[in-house]
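Regression check, nicotinamide-adenine-dinucleotide case 419:
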Amino acid sequence: MNSVNPLENVQMILKKSCEVLDLDESVYNLLKEPERTIEINIPVKMDNGKFRIFKGYRSQHCDVMGPYKGGIRFHQSVNGDEVKALSIWMSLKCSATHLPFGGGKGGIIVDVNELSENELEKLSRGYVKELYKYIGDRFDIPAPDVNTNEKIMAWMLDEYIKLTGNNTLATFTGKALGFGGSFGRKEATGVGVAVMTRESLIKLGINIRDSKIAIQGFGNVGSNTAKHLARMGGNILAVSEFDNEHGVYTIYNENGFNVFELIDYFSKNHTLYDFKGSKHISIDQFYSLDVDVLIPCALENSITEEEAQKIRAKLIVEGANGPVNYLADRILSQKNIEVIPDILANSGGVIASYYEWVQNISGIDMTEDDVLNKVEYKMLLAYNEIMKIKDKYDVTMRLASYIYSVLRLYKILKLRSRI
Ligand code: NAD
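Current build output:
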């Protein structure tokens, strides 16, 4: 894969947005790196009695709007630059959607498939043991990301409470319902991606009921996006997934899948490889599909220059963080393909996380409708404001979103005399 360093990727667009706004170069120099990145080594006594040391990170980008906020990823490809980039995206995302949070992100280099349940718990607790002094409900609030979930959040929060004696539930979000979690959090990112897809289709003059959609990655974001698009009348024709046995594969049904059956099948089998009524197509065919919308919901850098050349969709909505690198972005823009960027498209997750945090610190309960309606409201507000910027500067949606976020950050930095 012709991949671009994700930090370089975010910095390129950050720089461009500072230039469009004609900001002093100190603003870019401040925002292009996190305020701090902590690197840790976590010793875990494995089931065979031997110790293994895992490397982990926490990056804290900018707290000018409020406590740092961002997920923790468990993946073999985690690295310092990736974590830094993800924390910058979180600052931009929180700024775009008017949340009182700054950007944070964490990760551990690990292949979770190699660990037993017992080892996974020790690793999760070990992460908190190394970092508990640097997180907290008013300082840095982690959440799940790729390969982490509410069970891992429960272990981490339990460890945090044990180590600090601070019996608050608000230090982590993405928790289980019985342990301070919020209705709607699991669905929120997918709901937001679906809402952004619906709005963008309207702008393109395409009726969602006639739309043909391809999705990459069918985890939390991909499957919930598919579910809500199906509810809105959208047709999911292709899903690309990955499993250890088959690697990356794509299933296709020219008449559109029954998404609810897909979700059920995936939750039982952890793969879609043998899903009935589907045929397999190559990854090249997947990217070249004659669809209206392509929604990448796996990892960053999945769409490079090579894939961008093949894409025929009219619209790309970034469910994942950083799936389209800046080189691919240029090609898509030349081909007049609209890209709804990650910092807007997948912000539903952090918006719902914010309301989980609000419930934890205030003691007020919200229903699923309360949370998801607020997610939709905040995202539509941001979408409409960003559309105005797009028209004003005649730029892509990505650059418009960055300009909007950077301008808000800049104004607060100025007010607080930080720049
Ligand atoms: P997940 O682990 O639940 O799902 C990811 C899915 O992608 C998995 O099913 C995996 O098998 C699949 N996958 C991995 N590599 C693939 C490949 N090369 N081709 C096709 N499929 C592949 O993770 P998630 O929570 O859905 O997150 C996905 C992306 O969305 C990440 O970039 C994450 O940072 C971003 N994101 C997640 C949330 C959230 O609320 N979960 C919020 C905002 C952004």
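Comparison notes: The chain has two domains: 32-170, 186-345. The longest helix spans residues 368-393. No diff flagged against the previous build.
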